[in-house]
């Protein structure tokens, strides 16, 4: 009863989604967006006409003006600095625009150009000081804040009356201040245009990447040849220009220069920036985050003003939000990977009946023996991690190595070893096609093709993205083993879509159906996912009928058969289940049966743990990784089975000295060649009663004429 | 490096002397007893604040919220006495508020790891907003009868020396003792010099950082009491002024590097004298408030640039996000 409940709960409750969602980059933008929706909803409930078009247009104008400054601040924060002088630059450029227009009577285009230039110059002062003289951004812009503000105060003492006296009535100027296109205010239009450009600039263009790189690590950026000082200086110039754009619209809208223009603006914009999720200290941020932050802050301050809150409360609210947002951001950035790694592992319920006996004296097909005790060893100490071994029709032996090479041992004595091809990822399963091309599954890379002359080509490294998966499962993370059908379809297994090559044992701890079988068509080059939801699919072998494949599910401890053609097309049947170990590669035997490697044997403790997902989750959260309960992969065996699912024979190395760990085996001219992913050797075992002429290549593709 | 810093002190002191002499000779009304008294009284509050800032800056931080600590808790004392509470109870409340404020600052910086400039900028706004919204009825909190006798903290003389100067002197001695004669002071220097090394050697960095901000806030509150006593009121809008830049100016000009671990009380005294003389001279010259700010800003900028050359940031220990 309890087991049933547990199994239902873990079958239908998507535990694994939390970790996958948290590890997405967009969650960092999603949080402020949700906050924005909450604030907007709360205010629309408590304030009348909050969502009326007039009110929205007014908000959009303010949001546009502050939004420009927000963009500038975002840029400066992403590059690893801060700009507190924006409020004073805003005031000065506002004054500049109105002075030129009202007092000197310049035409509007000239006013716009001069104001932008003024903003650029004011920003350039910050830029030179911080970028080239490498002063601290905070203290420097704090000082320029006072200097600019004092200059502004001095200027308006002299000119405020002149400006207040003038009432320019210029259509283009009025359009800047209050015009709209189809109801969208002019400022919002310009903001949208600049925001789209800013997004493309930051995410698609080289200078944008340089900015993010400098913010992420200034020293590394310098070492990789990015012009750090110039880029930083230009960011401050850009901040000045963007602030002056905001000031232009503000000047055109209100047309006055009060003494308190832009006072405290830096706190508002900074709050918006941090609240939007742009990390203080640099390296992370986006245009969207800046916009969302500005909107939230604007809604809150406007809402408080409408609700007649005292000035002090407004101030407290801003400061409080600023602090909380900064704190959350800093803690999250610091602990992100730790939190994700804690919640990412999501074990599920996986019950297996007691395994068949393997002990000596208990009988049965798995009864242990010592047949592999004296296997011949090839390449002892010279090869590392030959997960799969394969022989071509000229009797040469190929094996993958941990160093990212395919090694070739030359017939007849297999003493000479050479690098056949360098790939760069860890080669796992291998198969020859009819044209002597060697197809290899490479962990972390995908399916690759090696021509007889040793050139490496990518066959496929992606498949169709499934609709309901949070993790991007279009890329291949752990292609494992493959076989090729007569029609040139390559079926290969991808063991897990949730873990990388180096973390594959954790998938065993999870015991969730994270794996899939993918089909690559050599004729069209198309790739599609054939089967999904498999528990670590591993070995694959085309069955005798040519219409189905046999595949092993390592942590499902079973062998299944999948029809890709014929009457039973699309169906899956269990061939064997409840194996005493974890099945790995499957290959043809000379007598029409199949070889199967058991990479490790089951243990009662893990079997029990598989029935207790809560226990495994607590373990993953509280115990360091190297003390977790993992599947045993130290000792295994080779068995031979037939299509009816009957085990015919088994081969063991009881002493565990010569060849206890087996992930793959190939029969060739009366010998069985053994590979193991943790081994530094390849085994060669003389089979009794085997066809001494059997060559897998010939059997599959016909004898060389 | 040591020789260079000694030079900076000498230079600042020489600039002070030249400035003082020049003002004495060319400015009418500078070298009068009344003006000297005003100068010293202004300087006293600035100097006490400079001591608070020095403690934090030596520990590689900065405290922008000092003016809030100067304005709000003393303002609270005046307000509470005005509302009929006894003076000791009001003082106790103010001190508790100050300690709580210092703890919040310290916790944010030491435990939540918010950059100190940023954290104190926000907490300062928070405290000032609190005062504005909840504590004070008017922007200027007036002296009331219940405060009788307390004005002696800022007015009058002790042994012929103006009391506020005596208060500054007492604060200097206490801070000098703390920094130079206690283990706690040595820890501050160690943390300021290299926070990671300090932590690795087993210094309880985080509690010490919290302590720095608590002490700084308490000194700020003390400065506020002295100020309130000397002018018989608490103008809480002082938070909006540029006083904090004067304080930073005192510290940086005095030769306490912003990168931490350097300097002491002597630097604060020298810096205070220079700034005090400069401000006083500009006031006598009738330079407008904005003009004074402009001059101060430019001088501060020059000081920071000089500081960055004399005490370059250690790129190895400068934190990511140390803006």
Automatic annotation (TrEMBL), chain B:
Protein's membrane topology: Multi-pass membrane protein
UniProt-annotated location(s): Cell membrane
Record keywords: Cell inner membrane, Cell membrane, Membrane, Transmembrane, Transmembrane helix, Transport
Main location: membrane
One Pfam family from the record: BPD_transp_2
A cellular-component GO term for this protein: plasma membrane
Molecular functions per Gene Ontology: transmembrane transporter activity
Protein name: ABC transporter permease
Lineage: Bacteria, Pseudomonadati, Pseudomonadota, Alphaproteobacteria, Hyphomicrobiales
């Amino acid at each position: 009863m309890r087991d049933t409940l547990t199994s239902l709960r873990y079958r239908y409750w998507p535990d694994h989604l939390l970790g996958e969602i948290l590890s997405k980059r967009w969650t960092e933008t999603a949080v402020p967006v949700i906050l924005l929706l909450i604030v907007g909803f709360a205010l629309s409930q408590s304030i009348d006409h909050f969502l009326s078009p007039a009110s929205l247009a007014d908000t959009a104008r303010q949001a546009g003006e502050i939004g420009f400054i927000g963009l500038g601040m975002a840029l400066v924060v992403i590059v690893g600095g801060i700009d507190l002088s924006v409020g004073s630059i805003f005031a000065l450029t506002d004054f500049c625009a109105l002075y030129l227009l009202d007092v000197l009577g310049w035409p509007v285009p000239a006013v716009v150009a001069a104001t932008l230039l003024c903003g650029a110059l004011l920003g350039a002062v910050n830029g030179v000081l911080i970028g080239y003289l490498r002063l601290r951004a905070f203290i420097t812009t704090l000082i320029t804040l006072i200097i600019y503000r004092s200059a502004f105060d001095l200027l308006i003492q002299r000119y405020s009356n002149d400006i207040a006296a003038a009432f320019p009535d210029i259509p283009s100027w009025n359009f800047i201040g209050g015009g709209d296109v189809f109801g969208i205010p002019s400022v919002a239009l310009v903001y949208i245009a600049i925001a789209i450009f800013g997004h493309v600039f930051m995410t698609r263009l080289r200078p944008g990447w340089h900015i993010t790189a400098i913010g992420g690590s200034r020293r590394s950026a310098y070492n990789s040849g990015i012009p750090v000082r110039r880029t930083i200086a230009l960011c401050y110039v850009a901040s000045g220009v963007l602030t002056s754009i905001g000031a232009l619209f503000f000047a055109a809208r209100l047309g006055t220069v009060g003494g308190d223009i832009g006072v405290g603006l830096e706190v508002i914009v900074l709050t918006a920036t941090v609240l939007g999720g742009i990390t203080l200290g640099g390296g992370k941020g986006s245009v969207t985050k800046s916009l969302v932050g500005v909107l939230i802050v604007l809604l809150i301050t406007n809402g408080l003003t409408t609700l007649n809150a005292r000035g002090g409360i407004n101030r407290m609210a801003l400061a409080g939000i600023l602090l909380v947002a900064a704190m959350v951001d800093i803690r999250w950035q610091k602990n992100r990977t730790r939190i994700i790694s804690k919640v990412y592992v999501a074990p599920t319920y996986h019950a297996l009946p007691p395994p068949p006996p393997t002990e000596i004296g208990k009988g049965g097909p798995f009864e242990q023996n010592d047949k592999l005790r004296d296997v011949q060893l090839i390449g002892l100490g010279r090869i590392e991690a030959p997960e799969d071994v394969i022989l071509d029709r000229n009797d040469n032996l190929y094996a993958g190595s941990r160093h990212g090479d395919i090694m070739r041992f030359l017939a007849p004595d297999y003493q000479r070893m050479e690098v056949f091809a360098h790939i760069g990822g860890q080669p796992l399963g291998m198969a020859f096609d009819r044209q002597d091309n060697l197809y290899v599954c490479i962990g972390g890379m995908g399916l690759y093709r090696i021509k007889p002359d040793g050139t490496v080509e990518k066959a496929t490294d992606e498949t169709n993205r499934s609709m309901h998966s949070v993790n991007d499962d279009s890329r291949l993370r752990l292609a494992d083993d493959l076989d090729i059908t007569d029609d040139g379809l390559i079926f290969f297994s991808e063991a897990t879509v949730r873990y990388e090559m180096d973390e594959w044992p954790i998938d065993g701890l999870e015991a969730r159906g994270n794996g899939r079988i993918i089909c690559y068509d050599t004729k069209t080059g198309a790739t599609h996912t054939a089967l999904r939801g498999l528990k670590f699919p591993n070995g694959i072998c085309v069955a005798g009928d040519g219409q189905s494949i046999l595949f092993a599910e390592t942590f499902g401890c079973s062998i299944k058969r999948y029809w890709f053609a014929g009457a039973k097309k699309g169906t899956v049947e269990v061939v064997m289940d409840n194996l005493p170990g974890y099945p790995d590669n499957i290959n043809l035997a000379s007598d029409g049966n199949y070889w199967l490697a058991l990479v490790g044997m089951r243990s009662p403790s893990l079997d029990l743990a598989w029935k207790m997902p809560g226990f495994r989750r607590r373990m993953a959260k509280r115990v360091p990784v190297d003390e977790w309960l993992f599947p045993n992969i130290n000792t295994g065996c080779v068995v031979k089975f037939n299509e009816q699912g009957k085990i015919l024979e088994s081969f063991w190395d009881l002493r565990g000295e010569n060849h206890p760990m087996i992930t793959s085996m190939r029969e060739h001219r009366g010998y069985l060649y053994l590979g193991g992913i943790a081994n530094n050797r390849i085994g060669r075992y003389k089979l009794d009663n085997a066809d001494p002429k059997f060559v897998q290549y010939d059997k599959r593709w016909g004898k060389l004429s | 490096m040591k020789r260079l810093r000694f030079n900076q002190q000498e230079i600042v002191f020489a600039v002070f002397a030249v400035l003082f002499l020049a003002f004495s000779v060319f400015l009418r009304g500078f070298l009068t007893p009344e003006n000297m008294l005003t100068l010293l009284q202004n300087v006293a509050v600035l100097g006490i604040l400079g001591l608070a800032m020095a403690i934090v800056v030596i520990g590689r931080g900065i405290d922008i919220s000092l003016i809030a600590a100067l304005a709000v808790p003393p303002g609270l004392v005046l307000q509470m006495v005005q509302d009929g509470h006894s003076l000791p109870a009001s003082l106790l409340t103010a001190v508790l508020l100050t300690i709580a404020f210092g703890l919040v600052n310290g916790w944010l910086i030491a435990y939540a790891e918010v950059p100190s400039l940023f954290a104190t900028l926000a907490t300062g706004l928070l405290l000032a907003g609190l005062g504005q919204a909840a504590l004070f009825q008017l922007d200027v909190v007036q002296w009331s009868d219940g405060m009788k006798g307390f004005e002696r903290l800022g007015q009058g003389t002790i042994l012929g020396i103006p009391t506020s100067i005596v208060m500054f002197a007492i604060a200097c001695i206490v801070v000098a003792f703390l920094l130079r004669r206690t283990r706690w002071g040595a820890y501050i220097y160690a943390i300021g010099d290299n926070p990671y090394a300090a932590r690795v050697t087993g210094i309880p960095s985080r509690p010490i950082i919290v302590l720095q901000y608590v002490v700084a806030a308490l000194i700020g509150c003390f400065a506020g009491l002295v100020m309130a006593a000397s002018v018989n009121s608490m103008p809480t809008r002082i938070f909006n002024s540029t006083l904090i830049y004067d304080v930073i100016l005192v510290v940086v000009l005095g030769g306490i590097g912003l990168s931490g671990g350097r300097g002491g009380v002597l630097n604060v005294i020298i810096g205070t004298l220079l700034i005090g003389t400069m401000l006083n001279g500009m006031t006598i010259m009738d330079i407008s408030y904005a003009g004074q700010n402009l001059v101060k800003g430019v001088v501060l900028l020059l000081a920071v640039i000089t500081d960055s050359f004399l005490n370059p940031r250690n790129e190895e220990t400068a934190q990511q996000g140390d803006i």
